[in-house]
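Quick illustration, no need to memorize.
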Amino acid sequence: MSRMSLTFQCQSCQLAGTLDTAPGKTGLLIVSGGNEVRSGAFSGQSQLAARIAEAGFPVFRFDRRGIGDSDGENRGFGKSGKDIEAAIEAFRAMAPQLDRVIAFGNCDAASALALIEGEGCDGLILSNPWTIEGDDQTPPPAAVRSRYSEKLRNPKELLRLVTGKVSLRKLASGLKQAIAPAVTKSALADDIAAGLAKFEGRTAILLASRDRTAQAFDAVWNSADPRIRRCEGASHAYVEEHARGWLEAEILTVLRKK
């Protein structure tokens, strides 16, 4: 296996990509979330790509327009459909043996894949989909309750409380958020659901239990959705050792299914 750096066109812009070669006929397209680039500080996906390629599946990662080494204007995840389309075309050109392309996205990359109805993909792996509206960064009540539950089980946090090292004002504010009515509506979540309803391939939804983005998604989604898989004790980027192994295993399960 080897890693190749390359460039490809998206409309009038030149995008940067990385291919981890492997002989498999099913390939993994990794779509970066937020303003993450395919290398540097966000090396977790680079390491994931190497491990998936070692298992026999080629992996293609790229920087969308205006991010990392790619040209153009960063228009956000909601307008990244052309970038994803161009990346799939480049992936198939560089790995002509491919019969199937499975796309993986975390956070708003997962949402982007759903919003384009999985166009050009044979399967989707959506991790911690972003469903928070606009600039609202307030965590959902379920997330606040989860955070306080963890703190109450931590002897060090209890010691801080009884020794007066906890801000009572912040504590009161947090408790107010915790008892607030649950959020049940999200136009973005509705759009994601509509996109997935039109996608004919297999979809897996992966949620990290300690992640606020995942908890916000859970608050507005059908918790009984059979496509959902949860990793207990995992944070947003699955940095914990058990979470890294879990994520890799889940992705390989989808790649191996026909």
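The chain has two domains: 3-135+184-256, 141-178.
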